[in-house]
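Please fill in the sequence for the structure shown.

STRUCTURE ENCODING:
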Protein backbone atom coordinates (compact mmCIF):
# COMPACT_ATOMS: atom_id res chain seq x y z
CA UNK A 1 0.00 0.00 0.00
CA UNK A 2 1.36 3.40 -0.97
CA UNK A 3 1.98 6.14 1.60
CA UNK A 4 -0.91 8.22 0.17
CA UNK A 5 -3.33 5.33 0.56
CA UNK A 6 -2.16 4.69 4.11
CA UNK A 7 -2.64 8.38 4.90
CA UNK A 8 -6.10 8.38 3.35
CA UNK A 9 -7.09 5.30 5.34
CA UNK A 10 -5.92 6.95 8.53
CA UNK A 11 -7.95 10.07 7.75
CA UNK A 12 -11.10 8.01 7.24
CA UNK A 13 -10.41 6.10 10.45
CA UNK A 14 -9.96 9.35 12.37
CA UNK A 15 -13.20 10.77 10.99
CA UNK A 16 -15.17 7.64 11.84
CA UNK A 17 -13.80 7.55 15.38
CA UNK A 18 -14.48 11.27 15.85
CA UNK A 19 -18.05 10.90 14.59
CA UNK A 20 -18.53 7.91 16.86
CA UNK A 21 -17.42 9.91 19.88
CA UNK A 22 -20.22 12.49 19.56
CA UNK A 23 -22.38 12.50 22.67
CA UNK A 24 -26.13 12.04 22.24
CA UNK A 25 -28.95 14.18 23.61
CA UNK A 26 -32.67 13.41 23.31
CA UNK A 27 -34.65 16.52 22.40
CA UNK A 28 -38.45 16.58 22.16
CA UNK A 29 -39.58 19.04 19.49
CA UNK A 30 -42.93 19.97 17.99
CA UNK A 31 -44.13 18.69 14.65
CA UNK A 32 -44.35 22.30 13.47
CA UNK A 33 -40.65 22.85 14.19
CA UNK A 34 -39.76 19.61 12.45
CA UNK A 35 -41.96 20.36 9.44
CA UNK A 36 -40.09 23.62 8.90
CA UNK A 37 -36.92 21.59 8.14
CA UNK A 38 -34.86 24.05 10.19
CA UNK A 39 -33.45 21.03 12.02
CA UNK A 40 -31.82 19.91 8.75
CA UNK A 41 -29.71 23.06 8.96
CA UNK A 42 -29.12 23.21 12.71
CA UNK A 43 -28.31 19.61 13.61
CA UNK A 44 -25.25 19.08 11.39
CA UNK A 45 -23.80 22.40 12.57
CA UNK A 46 -24.44 21.50 16.21
CA UNK A 47 -22.52 18.26 15.74
CA UNK A 48 -19.67 20.11 14.03
CA UNK A 49 -19.47 22.90 16.61
CA UNK A 50 -19.97 21.08 19.91
CA UNK A 51 -19.74 17.38 18.93
CA UNK A 52 -23.32 16.74 20.03
CA UNK A 53 -25.63 14.30 18.25
CA UNK A 54 -29.27 15.39 18.67
CA UNK A 55 -31.94 12.69 18.58
CA UNK A 56 -35.22 14.44 17.81
CA UNK A 57 -38.44 13.11 19.31
CA UNK A 58 -41.11 14.72 17.14
CA UNK A 59 -44.46 15.12 18.92
CA UNK A 60 -47.00 17.78 19.82
CA UNK A 61 -46.27 20.15 22.70
CA UNK A 62 -48.54 18.27 25.12
CA UNK A 63 -46.79 14.97 24.44
CA UNK A 64 -43.37 16.65 24.60
CA UNK A 65 -44.15 17.90 28.10
CA UNK A 66 -45.34 14.42 29.11
CA UNK A 67 -42.01 13.00 27.94
CA UNK A 68 -40.23 15.62 30.01
CA UNK A 69 -42.28 14.83 33.10
CA UNK A 70 -41.40 11.16 32.69
CA UNK A 71 -37.71 11.94 32.17
CA UNK A 72 -37.76 10.30 28.75
CA UNK A 73 -35.96 13.24 27.10
CA UNK A 74 -33.16 15.56 28.18
CA UNK A 75 -34.68 18.79 26.93
CA UNK A 76 -37.71 20.20 25.13
CA UNK A 77 -38.26 22.80 22.40
CA UNK A 78 -41.95 23.76 22.26
CA UNK A 79 -44.35 26.67 21.79
CA UNK A 80 -47.04 26.98 24.44
CA UNK A 81 -45.96 29.59 27.00
CA UNK A 82 -48.54 28.95 29.73
CA UNK A 83 -47.92 25.18 29.63
CA UNK A 84 -44.14 25.77 29.64
CA UNK A 85 -44.33 28.09 32.65
CA UNK A 86 -46.44 25.52 34.51
CA UNK A 87 -43.85 22.86 33.61
CA UNK A 88 -41.11 24.99 35.20
CA UNK A 89 -43.21 25.89 38.25
CA UNK A 90 -43.85 22.20 38.89
CA UNK A 91 -40.10 21.58 38.91
CA UNK A 92 -39.87 19.50 35.76
CA UNK A 93 -37.55 22.00 34.03
CA UNK A 94 -34.81 24.11 35.53
CA UNK A 95 -35.93 27.14 33.53
CA UNK A 96 -37.49 28.35 30.28
CA UNK A 97 -35.47 30.25 27.67
CA UNK A 98 -36.94 31.84 24.57
CA UNK A 99 -35.05 31.02 21.37
CA UNK A 100 -37.04 32.25 18.35
CA UNK A 101 -40.51 33.08 17.12
CA UNK A 102 -42.69 33.15 14.03
CA UNK A 103 -46.47 33.38 13.71
CA UNK A 104 -49.61 31.42 13.08
CA UNK A 105 -51.54 32.01 9.86
CA UNK A 106 -54.99 31.16 8.54
CA UNK A 107 -54.99 28.90 5.51
CA UNK A 108 -58.07 28.25 3.42
CA UNK A 109 -59.60 27.62 0.00
CA UNK A 110 -58.71 29.90 -2.89
CA UNK A 111 -62.45 30.52 -3.21
CA UNK A 112 -62.77 32.05 0.25
CA UNK A 113 -66.47 31.55 1.00
CA UNK A 114 -66.06 32.71 4.61
CA UNK A 115 -64.28 35.85 3.36
CA UNK A 116 -61.60 35.63 6.05
CA UNK A 117 -59.13 37.43 3.80
CA UNK A 118 -61.06 40.59 4.77
CA UNK A 119 -61.19 39.74 8.48
CA UNK A 120 -60.31 42.51 10.93
CA UNK A 121 -58.72 40.12 13.44
CA UNK A 122 -58.07 36.46 14.11
CA UNK A 123 -61.26 36.36 16.20
CA UNK A 124 -63.21 37.87 13.32
CA UNK A 125 -61.77 35.24 10.97
CA UNK A 126 -62.95 32.43 13.24
CA UNK A 127 -66.40 33.98 13.64
CA UNK A 128 -66.74 34.21 9.86
CA UNK A 129 -65.80 30.53 9.50
CA UNK A 130 -68.24 29.48 12.23
CA UNK A 131 -71.13 31.57 10.91
CA UNK A 132 -70.77 29.96 7.48
CA UNK A 133 -70.08 26.53 8.99
CA UNK A 134 -67.22 26.35 6.53
CA UNK A 135 -65.16 23.18 6.82
CA UNK A 136 -62.39 23.74 9.36
CA UNK A 137 -59.63 21.27 10.25
CA UNK A 138 -58.40 21.25 13.85
CA UNK A 139 -55.29 19.36 14.83
CA UNK A 140 -57.06 18.07 17.93
CA UNK A 141 -53.80 16.71 19.36
CA UNK A 142 -53.04 18.88 22.41
CA UNK A 143 -50.18 20.52 20.53
CA UNK A 144 -49.13 24.15 20.91
CA UNK A 145 -50.99 24.95 17.70
CA UNK A 146 -54.12 23.15 18.90
CA UNK A 147 -53.99 24.95 22.26
CA UNK A 148 -53.67 28.32 20.54
CA UNK A 149 -56.63 27.50 18.30
CA UNK A 150 -58.71 26.54 21.35
CA UNK A 151 -57.77 29.79 23.09
CA UNK A 152 -58.77 31.80 20.04
CA UNK A 153 -62.16 30.06 19.80
CA UNK A 154 -62.69 30.74 23.50
CA UNK A 155 -61.81 34.41 23.00
CA UNK A 156 -64.34 34.47 20.17
CA UNK A 157 -67.01 33.29 22.62
CA UNK A 158 -67.39 29.87 21.01
CA UNK A 159 -67.63 26.48 22.70
CA UNK A 160 -65.97 24.01 20.34
CA UNK A 161 -67.64 21.11 22.15
CA UNK A 162 -70.93 22.29 20.64
CA UNK A 163 -69.58 22.47 17.08
CA UNK A 164 -71.08 20.18 14.48
CA UNK A 165 -68.59 17.56 13.30
CA UNK A 166 -69.90 17.97 9.75
CA UNK A 167 -67.83 21.16 9.44
CA UNK A 168 -65.46 21.20 12.45
CA UNK A 169 -63.10 18.29 11.82
CA UNK A 170 -60.65 17.22 14.54
CA UNK A 171 -57.99 15.00 13.00
CA UNK A 172 -55.76 14.24 16.01
CA UNK A 173 -52.59 14.63 13.97
CA UNK A 174 -49.42 16.64 13.57
CA UNK A 175 -49.15 19.79 11.50
CA UNK A 176 -48.16 18.13 8.23
CA UNK A 177 -50.92 15.53 8.40
CA UNK A 178 -53.46 18.18 9.39
CA UNK A 179 -52.46 20.34 6.41
CA UNK A 180 -52.82 17.30 4.16
CA UNK A 181 -56.32 16.75 5.55
CA UNK A 182 -57.21 20.40 4.95
CA UNK A 183 -55.89 20.17 1.40
CA UNK A 184 -57.97 17.05 0.73
CA UNK A 185 -61.11 18.68 2.20
CA UNK A 186 -60.39 22.14 0.73
CA UNK A 187 -60.86 23.40 4.29
CA UNK A 188 -59.72 26.21 6.56
CA UNK A 189 -56.95 25.56 9.08
CA UNK A 190 -54.60 27.43 11.41
CA UNK A 191 -50.94 26.62 10.76
CA UNK A 192 -47.61 27.96 11.87
CA UNK A 193 -46.07 29.92 9.00
CA UNK A 194 -42.97 27.72 8.73
CA UNK A 195 -44.95 24.50 8.23
CA UNK A 196 -47.15 26.18 5.63
CA UNK A 197 -44.22 27.53 3.62
CA UNK A 198 -42.53 24.13 3.64
CA UNK A 199 -45.75 22.23 2.84
CA UNK A 200 -45.70 20.65 -0.62
CA UNK A 201 -49.32 19.51 -1.07
CA UNK A 202 -51.01 22.92 -1.06
CA UNK A 203 -53.67 22.01 -3.62
CA UNK A 204 -56.29 24.79 -3.77
CA UNK A 205 -55.27 26.25 -0.42
CA UNK A 206 -53.61 29.61 0.16
CA UNK A 207 -52.64 31.90 3.02
CA UNK A 208 -55.69 34.09 3.63
CA UNK A 209 -55.10 35.93 6.90
CA UNK A 210 -52.15 36.81 9.16
CA UNK A 211 -50.69 39.67 11.13
CA UNK A 212 -52.81 39.77 14.29
CA UNK A 213 -50.55 39.98 17.40
CA UNK A 214 -52.70 37.20 18.86
CA UNK A 215 -51.04 34.88 16.33
CA UNK A 216 -47.51 35.44 17.67
CA UNK A 217 -45.75 32.07 18.09
CA UNK A 218 -42.82 31.89 20.51
CA UNK A 219 -40.55 28.83 20.79
CA UNK A 220 -38.71 28.13 24.04
CA UNK A 221 -36.08 25.68 25.26
CA UNK A 222 -36.63 23.82 28.54
CA UNK A 223 -33.91 21.59 30.04
CA UNK A 224 -35.40 18.73 32.05
CA UNK A 225 -34.57 19.11 35.73
CA UNK A 226 -31.92 16.63 36.94
CA UNK A 227 -33.27 17.06 40.48
CA UNK A 228 -36.39 15.25 39.22
CA UNK A 229 -34.58 12.86 36.90
CA UNK A 230 -30.90 12.40 37.80
CA UNK A 231 -30.22 10.35 34.66
CA UNK A 232 -30.90 13.22 32.22
CA UNK A 233 -27.90 14.76 30.48
CA UNK A 234 -28.15 18.17 32.09
CA UNK A 235 -24.67 19.36 31.11
CA UNK A 236 -25.29 18.50 27.45
CA UNK A 237 -28.63 20.32 27.61
CA UNK A 238 -26.79 23.42 28.82
CA UNK A 239 -24.34 23.12 25.93
CA UNK A 240 -27.18 22.86 23.44
CA UNK A 241 -29.04 25.80 24.96
CA UNK A 242 -25.91 27.95 24.87
CA UNK A 243 -25.38 27.05 21.21
CA UNK A 244 -29.00 27.76 20.20
CA UNK A 245 -28.94 31.09 22.04
CA UNK A 246 -25.40 31.90 20.94
CA UNK A 247 -24.05 33.64 17.88
CA UNK A 248 -23.92 30.62 15.55
CA UNK A 249 -27.37 29.29 16.41
CA UNK A 250 -29.11 32.65 16.25
CA UNK A 251 -27.41 33.49 12.96
CA UNK A 252 -28.49 30.23 11.31
CA UNK A 253 -32.04 30.68 12.58
CA UNK A 254 -32.15 34.23 11.20
CA UNK A 255 -30.78 33.18 7.81
CA UNK A 256 -33.04 30.18 7.27
CA UNK A 257 -35.58 30.85 4.52
CA UNK A 258 -37.82 29.12 2.00
CA UNK A 259 -38.46 30.75 -1.36
CA UNK A 260 -36.86 33.93 -0.07
CA UNK A 261 -39.09 34.19 3.00
CA UNK A 262 -37.52 33.93 6.46
CA UNK A 263 -39.32 31.45 8.68
CA UNK A 264 -38.13 32.37 12.17
CA UNK A 265 -36.86 35.41 14.04
CA UNK A 266 -34.23 34.65 16.69
CA UNK A 267 -34.81 36.43 20.01
CA UNK A 268 -32.70 34.66 22.66
CA UNK A 269 -31.47 36.97 25.40
CA UNK A 270 -28.13 36.62 27.21
CA UNK A 271 -28.25 34.78 30.51
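FILLED IN BY: designer on duty
SEQUENCE:
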Amino acid sequence: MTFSRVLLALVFLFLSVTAGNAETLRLAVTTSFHNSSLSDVLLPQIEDDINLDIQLIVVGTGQALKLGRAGDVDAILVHSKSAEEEFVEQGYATHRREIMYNDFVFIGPTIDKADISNARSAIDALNRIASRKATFVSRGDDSGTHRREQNLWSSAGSNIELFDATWYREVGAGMGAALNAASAMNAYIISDRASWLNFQNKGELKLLYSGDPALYNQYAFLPVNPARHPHVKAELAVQLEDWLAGENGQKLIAEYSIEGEHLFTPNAKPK
